[in-house]
Amino acid sequence: MNDEEKVTYLANICHLLIADGGVDRLEERVFDHIRRDLRAGYFERQKAKEMAQKEGFQAQMVGRWSDRVANFEDMLFAAYCNGVFEKTAKKAIQQYARQRGINQEQLDMIKQEAKHRYAEFRQKQT
C-alpha cells in the first residue's frame, strides 16, 4: 500500500472511533497499534484524522482485496473499543461489508476474530 492508501485505511478506522463524539485513551492506543502495524507514520495519522472528520466522510476501499479485508478487520477491532457499536459505526460496518461482498458467514467469523483480538489487546494493556 502506498501512503495515500494508508491514510484512507486509517481514516476508515478513525471515522468509526469518532462516531460516538470522542476518542478516549484506549481508542487512541488501538488506533496507534493499527497505525504501527500498517507502518504508517505520524503524518499519515494526522491526515487520516482530518479526512475522517470531514462532513460526509464514508469508508472507502483501499488497495488489494486482502488490504480491504484487513481494513475491515481493523475497523471491527477498533469498533469493539466502546464495548458496543454506535449506530453510526454499525451502519458504516454493514455498508463496508456489503460493498466488499462479505457474506454473513464471513462477517460472523471476522467479528469473532475481532472480539478475540480486542480481548488480547486489552489484556496486554493492563
Descriptive tags:
126 residues, TerB-like, globular
List the helices and strands and how they pair.
Layout: H1 3-17, H2 25-38, H3 42-53, H4 65-79, H5 87-99, H6 104-125
Protein model, in words:
With 126 residues, the protein is mainly alpha-helical. The protein has a single domain (3-125), classed as Orthogonal Bundle (TerB-like). The protein contains six helices and no strands. The termini are far apart. The mean pLDDT is 87. The chain is globular. The longest helix is centred in the C-terminal third of the chain and has 22 residues, at 104-125. The chain has helices at residues 3-17, 25-38, 42-53, 65-79, 87-99, 104-125.
Q: Please provide the ordered H/E string of secondary-structure elements.
A: HHHHHH
Number of helices: 6
The overall average pLDDT, rounded, is 87
Q: Please outline the major beta sheet.
A: none
Number of domains: 1
Number of strands: 0
Could you tell me the radius of gyration in angstroms?
A: 13 Å
- As a percent range, the share of strand residues is under 5%
Structural class: mainly alpha
Shape: globular
**Which bin fits the share of residues in helices?**
over 70%
Q: If classified by CATH, what would the architecture be?
A: Orthogonal Bundle
CATH class: Mainly Alpha
Poorly predicted sequence stretches spanning 5 or more consecutive residues: none
Kindly report the CATH topology.
Answer: TerB-like
Distance between the termini: 32 Å
